[in-house]
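Researcher: For the record, we're logging two predictions in this thread. I'll number them. Prediction 1 follows.
Model: Prediction 1, sequence and structure:
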Amino acid sequence: MLDKNKSDNMSCKNKKFFDFVEKHLNDFVEIDSYLSRSKLYGIVSEYDDLSLTLSRTDMDEKNPHYNNQKVLYVPLNSIKSIKIL
């Protein structure tokens, strides 16, 4: 009985997280993750049950041909915190 309540609580937390991510899709965020010593920055472009996708484009004003797009796949279980900037 206790395990069932514990799993229901976790699914509620996950639902809140997914609602938060869905609401802030295409927003610029800062992510603190267990996988990196520095914070990760980018636009939330996609998410699924396992990961969050951050997109980031480095712009070169002098030569637009060298614009560089980076995509980071961050496992959900590695996210400590996420903040909208």
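Researcher: Logged. Prediction 2.
Model: Prediction 2, sequence and structure:
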Amino acid sequence: MRKQVKFKLFVAVSTGIILSLGLMTAGHAGPSPSVYDNLMRSRDALLNQRAYLQKALDGLSQELNDLNDKIGRVRDYLGQNDQALRDVDRALRQAGY
């Protein structure tokens, strides 16, 4: 939950920076060093955001893989349990119960 809030805030700030830079540069006839610096800071922020998102994606992918492994094990246990139950039922029938 806290990560979602940080992520939304980061996206909002990044978007605000980019939009502000676009508005600032609309009135200029040529590039200026301050515009370049602002664009580079925005680029750096976006690269940092991308790294954060990639790390989050990697973590979620690992969690999903772990959960899929657990699901597989539980399915195996369930299959073994079903087989054991059938064996007991068969034994009961053979014994005349």
